[in-house]
Design a protein that fits this description.
The protein is an all-alpha fold. The chain has one domain. The protein has 11 helices and no strands. The chain is globular and about 50 Å long.
Length: about 260
């Protein structure tokens, strides 16, 4: 896992993750042993894209070719960071059940596949990953939650990734309007997998809460406040969130925001 986290080129990172998953499935490695007590606080990343503050990332119209390319690039950047986030969840926290490590390696493998799909589509639009500026907000949250897997499970899968579930239907509508059927197909794959990723986060958040004698719903809301998490804004994709492990009381609470 450490080698994958250190890999700076996206192609190398994705290939490394696929190989690691294959080794795990073939029984050649013990993922629990791979978990390290020496965390990697700065994973490898390419020189480009240029990193800028989130508010400095230009917003472009999807009904123009440059705008659509910028959107695909932004999604590819999210997936590249998501590879590191999933690897970090498996690498950083020793002492978890074996199923925890298997879950997060499978997530990393799927995130790598998502990046490859988006990067290939970006090429059809005349661009490569790195052509547009991007922000580092996802990894900033990884560092903010690095001290505790319970906080990580709450604020990365159940906040940041769940926000992606909310945004997907809106993006799909825009892409359908410009007849980008391939991107619509790619987003269907990503949405299906991301529901599973958020569900994994929900499952391990619940497991950790139970192990510590905490109420999951109360704890989740308290962590949102304690860590100044990104605000939860409607519209919410309640159907996807339900599949991803959000309880009915949580969905009712979201519906009242």
């Amino acid at each position: 896992m450490a080698a994958c986290l250190h890999a700076s080129q996206p192609e190398d990172k994705a290939a490394g993750v696929h190989a690691l998953q294959a080794d795990w499935l073939a029984g050649r490695i013990d993922l629990a042993v791979e978990a390290s007590r020496i965390p990697i606080n700065q994973p490898g990343q390419p020189d480009k894209p240029a990193r800028v503050p989130p508010q400095k990332v230009p917003r472009r119209r999807v009904d123009t070719l440059p705008g659509r390319a910028a959107l695909v690039h932004a999604l590819a950047h999210i997936e590249f960071n998501a590879i590191n986030l999933a690897l970090d969840a498996a690498h950083r926290y020793p002492g978890m059940p074996a199923a925890y490590y298997a879950d997060w390696l499978s997530v990393a493998d799927e995130e790598a596949h998502h990046f490859e799909l988006l990067n290939a589509h970006l090429a059809t639009l005349g661009h490569v990953y790195g052509d547009f500026p991007a922000h580092n907000g996802l990894w900033d949250m990884a560092l903010k939650t690095a001290h505790d897997p319970l906080v990580r499970m709450a604020l990365v899968p159940r906040v940041l990734e769940a926000r992606g579930l909310d945004a997907t239907p809106l993006i799909v509508d825009k892409l359908k309007a410009v007849k980008d059927t391939r991107m619509v197909e790619i987003l269907a794959v990503i949405e299906r997998d991301e529901i599973g990723h958020v569900a994994i986060g929900s499952r391990w958040f619940g497991w950790l809460c139970e192990a510590r004698g905490l109420d999951p719903e109360v704890t989740f809301r308290q962590l949102l406040e304690d860590y100044d998490a990104p605000p939860l804004k409607p519209p919410f994709n309640l159907a996807a969130r339900r599949k991803a492990g959000f309880s009915e009381p949580e969905l009712d609470w979201l519906g009242g925001l």
